[in-house]
Amino acid sequence: MTDICDLIDKDGGTQKSAIFHDQGIYDLEMERIFARSWLFLTHEGQIPNIGDYVRTMMGEDEVIVVRQRDGSVKAFLNACRHRGAQVCAAEAGNANIFVCPYHGWGYGIDGSLRAVPLEKELYKGRLDKSTHGLRVVPLVESYHGFVYGCFDSTAPSLKEYLGEMGWYLDVWMDAAGGAELIGPPSRSILNCNWKVPSENFVGDTYHVGWTHGAALKALGAKPHRLGNRSLPDGDTGLQITTRHGHGLCVGFDGGPGMLGAVAPDILAWQAQNRERIERKLGSLRTRFYGCHINSTIFPNNSFLWGTNTFKLWQPRGPGSIEVLTWTIVEKEMPEDMKSRIATSMNRLFGSAGMLEADDSDNMESITQLSRGFVTRQGRVISQMSKGDDRQVPGMPGVVGDCAMGETAYRGFYRFYREMLLAGSWDEIRAGDSVWSDELLSLTLQSQSVERRK
Ligand code: FES
Ligand code: FE
User: Using one digit for the tens of pLDDT, what is the confidence trace for 83-121?
Assistant: First the structure.
């Protein structure tokens, strides 16, 4: 029996290596995290017309996401109600009906069972088709066009689940004119646990100058970024964690990095847009526009602004994931600019991207080494900047003072632990009003314990 309390410190500051490769923990994650969290499905722009669909995964459950006749979006399990065969094999397309290849049962785009071969002759009026539609994902909602689904009908709304993270997301998802994805997504398999890229994107700017040093040098990055020799001059950015394990790192030191170096017109376009955002949101929030941001929406949906990649880390057992990669762009950008950004993103973070390959080596080694019986009993740490976390008036969440820190790691793993322990969303809700105080006071307690030693 897994002792969850032993896996993760209460403040998220250390984790037992077993979490990166253990079938029992993985099964619990499927039940308590993936069957209860809001999971990214698609962007509305990927399924604009009635009958447009994509096939994707929610945890290990395969689903079809379909645009309905009334304009809404629904999602269904992609498993036939007769004997469970896969109903839809294509990754995306447009359909009037989904027909199971095994015995030919046909389902409408609303998931209802419409046609059963030889129904009259074989079932003789005894099959109630109205109760044999595809199983529905009970909650599907869109946040500024980004569509998420949740299997747990007692979960908070998507807006509540994103919570204070929305304060940051809305800068570019809303005030800047909105964002969209360029698809279809590229797909690749990585031999790593789903949490390793999720934690990397939620809070790891520390690795950038080291892991990506050679690639950044080739791309002409500023010298301070190479080999982690020094922090940037001036503003060193922020780490932020918000309720429900979401988080981001922000580097304010100068525009969309690699893209800006080759495309001054992108910088100019964003400078113009910045004035509009400042009028709407004020100067504090406008700082979060047009800078480097890495982020994870808990549990497995990550993105980077500045290098414009949008990722979904789909679990495939404890030691493997399928990576889905889209380019994320601002909706109102000229088409030519969007297409240059997509080329640049694929060069860096596509399946064979320069930076993707650097990261993949680390993600696979962390996972595969954690199979070792002795290794997995040990603990890894996310304690950088612990004790300096604080709350900033007017800025939601718990904030760390430098983009290179591990504040967002701790928020991610604190909530991961909370979800594994909680029996229901009601139990999780009970922690809503105290989570940040708890995170801060735990941090301070740990600091004082360390000082006593
Ligand atoms: Fe689908 Fe039989 S399993 S029709
Ligand atoms: Fe990286």
Answer: 999 999 999 999 999 999 999 999 999 999 999 999 999
pLDDT-above-90 percentage for the chain: 77
Same domain, 307 and 376: yes
Centre of ligand 1 to C-alpha 86, Å, is 8
The Cβ of residue 350 has, within 10 Å, a number of other Cβ atoms equal to 18
**Which one of 80, 81, 88 would you pick to mutate in the ligand 1 pocket, going by the greatest count of ligand atoms within 8 A of its CB?**
80
Centre of ligand 2 from the C-alpha of residue 95, in Å: 38
**Residue 312 Cα distances to 41, 59, 160, 298, angstroms:** 9, 11, 21, 11
Residue type, 48: P
CB 117 less than 6 A from any atom of ligand 1: no
User: Tell me: the pLDDT tens digits for 419-452?
Assistant: 999 999 999 999 998 898 888 877 666 655 554 4
Which residue puts its alpha carbon closest to atom 3 of ligand 1?
A: 83
Q: Which domain holds residue 70?
A: 39-142
Q: Give the Cβ contact number of residue 399 at 10 Å.
A: 18
CATH no. for residue 16?
3.90.380.10
**Do 132 and 212 fall within a single domain?**
no
50 and 23, same structural domain? Answer: no
Q: How many domains does the chain have?
A: 2
Here the tokens at position 88 are 């839809």
The Cα 310–Cα 260 span in angstroms is 18
State whether 275 and 170 are in the same domain: yes
Q: Is residue 3 annotated as part of the catalytic site, yes or no?
A: no
Measured CA to CA, the distance from residue 62 to residue 53 in angstroms comes to 13
Instruction: Assess whether 244 carries a catalytic annotation.
Output: no
Prediction pTM value: 0.95
User: Is there a single domain that holds both residue 282 and residue 202?
Assistant: yes
83 lines ligand 1 (CB under 6 A): yes
Cβ of residue 379 lying under 6 Å from some atom of ligand 1: no
Active site residue 359: yes
Residues 251 and 133 in one domain: no
